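User: Just a sanity check before I run the rest of the batch. Below are the structure tokens for the first item. I only need the designed sequence back.
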């Protein structure tokens, strides 16, 4: 747990008692800091009250002298409608902050690396952390990924906090300075929270706030919004462009799986946990970040080659014969699934769930790689309409049936290099509580198939 004793004498209100809010409340309590907590869920309030934490209806709070409202990042504070407590804090001039801001204010002298973007954040964050640890650097990895930041171990001056930063979290860190800030890519996302693409980009842009000229900004320049951001940063700090679409001056590029940086080349094609151009972008960003932190090229390359991957992100879970079974449950929109379809040539595709607005129509350029689609969940009929006449499909209904049907067809046809791919392009909420539960179930079922050999290793 992070020691927040440097904040003694300040008073806070904690709003939202899920993962990050609970960690904040417990860290504040451990440090002997005065605070009040609240959650709209009565059971969560009662559970924390049993730990001796003061629970108070925010309507009764006197906001004078409050140093900050520590909000769980999922709680809206501006658009579409601010939570009443956030509105009250704003009206009183109280800063809205998150748990990661408390980490920033804890007085730690460790370095901070932040990773944001629409896709690839988790893999890049985990990859940077893995490379650092492989090189003997003391680091903690979390934020939007894994443990809440205040559950980290305190690090010394030579340590590194590696933080995945969502757009929601970046709106709540007014004083955090990243020694290395990574911006991977931008596609429209979370518009319901930010109002429009410009609002989403503005939230992401906070990752560069507070950087000094000696700090490093790493920006993927393969989409227009990100390229514009790299130009905007200009000469304000050292900016490293990364691309998988062509060379970029004074940057890192990957062409056909070969990473190039100032005369150094690394062949990424044999790293099974980093398949496809999207993972080459992740690898290039991790390379640039770790080199900026002072690691030798050989140490970074060794870390790339030993990366074990992340669950639910093109996770190789089993092999039956020579058919690979891949869990990409984290792909909850078409843009994420596009990365998986682009990575494999012969696909038995399990797809469906609670569809996003764009559905799977944007994936049409990759349909030729799909041997057969197995449709599950609430999106089955609209997806069938999209695939009609373009890809053969079966209305499987549920995940177990889809896997059984895909397995039978793949084993019967025995196509070279084929994969059975769960990449739903949908949220899970019609049949599963979250994408993790969906992916865990797929993994267990795939490994239970007759003749299955367990694989470990993920990508994305």
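Assistant: Here's the designed sequence for the first item:
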């Amino acid at each position: 747990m992070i020691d927040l004793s440097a904040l003694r004498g300040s008073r806070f209100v904690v709003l939202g008692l899920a993962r990050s809010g609970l960690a904040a409340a417990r860290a504040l309590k451990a440090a002997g800091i005065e605070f009040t907590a609240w959650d709209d869920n009565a059971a969560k309030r009662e559970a924390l009250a049993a730990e001796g934490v003061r629970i108070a209806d925010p309507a009764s709070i006197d906001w004078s002298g409050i140093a900050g409202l520590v909000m769980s990042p999922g709680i809206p504070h501006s658009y579409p409608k601010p939570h009443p407590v956030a509105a009250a804090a704003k009206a009183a001039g109280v800063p809205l902050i998150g748990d990661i801001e408390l980490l920033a204010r804890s007085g730690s002298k460790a370095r901070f690396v932040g990773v944001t973007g629409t896709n690839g954040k988790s893999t890049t964050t985990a990859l940077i952390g893995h490379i650092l640890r492989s090189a003997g650097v003391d680091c903690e990895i979390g934020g939007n990924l894994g443990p809440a930041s205040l559950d980290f171990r305190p690090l010394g001056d030579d340590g590194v906090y590696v933080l995945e930063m969502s757009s929601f979290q970046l709106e709540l860190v007014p004083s955090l300075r990243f020694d290395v800030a990574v911006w991977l890519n931008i596609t429209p996302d979370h518009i319901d929270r930010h109002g429009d693409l410009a609002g989403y980009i503005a939230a992401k842009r906070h990752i560069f706030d507070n950087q000094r000229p000696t700090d490093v900004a790493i920006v993927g320049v393969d989409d227009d919004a990100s390229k514009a951001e790299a130009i905007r940063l200009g000469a304000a700090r050292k900016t490293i462009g990364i691309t998988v679409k062509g060379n970029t001056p004074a940057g890192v590029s990957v062409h056909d799986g070969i990473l190039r940086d100032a005369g150094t080349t690394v062949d990424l094609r044999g790293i099974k946990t980093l398949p496809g151009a999207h993972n080459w972008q992740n690898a290039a960003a991790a390379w640039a970040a770790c080199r900026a932190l002072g690691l030798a090229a050989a140490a970074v390359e060794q870390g790339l080659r030993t990366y074990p991957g992340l669950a639910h992100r093109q996770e190789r879970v089993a092999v039956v014969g020579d058919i690979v079974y891949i869990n990409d449950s984290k792909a909850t929109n078409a843009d994420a699934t596009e990365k998986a379809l682009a990575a494999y040539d012969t696909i038995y595709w399990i797809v469906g769930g609670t569809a996003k607005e764009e559905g799977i129509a944007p994936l049409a350029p990759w349909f030729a790689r799909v041997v057969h689609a197995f449709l599950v969940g609430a999106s089955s009929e609209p997806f069938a309409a999209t695939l009609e006449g373009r890809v053969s499909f079966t209305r499987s209904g549920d995940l177990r049936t889809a896997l059984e049907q895909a397995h039978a067809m793949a084993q019967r046809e025995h196509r070279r290099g084929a994969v059975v791919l769960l990449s739903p392009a949908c949220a899970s909420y019609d049949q599963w509580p979250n994408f993790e539960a969906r992916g865990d179930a797929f993994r267990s079922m795939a490994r239970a198939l007759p003749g299955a050999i367990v694989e470990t290793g993920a990508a994305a």
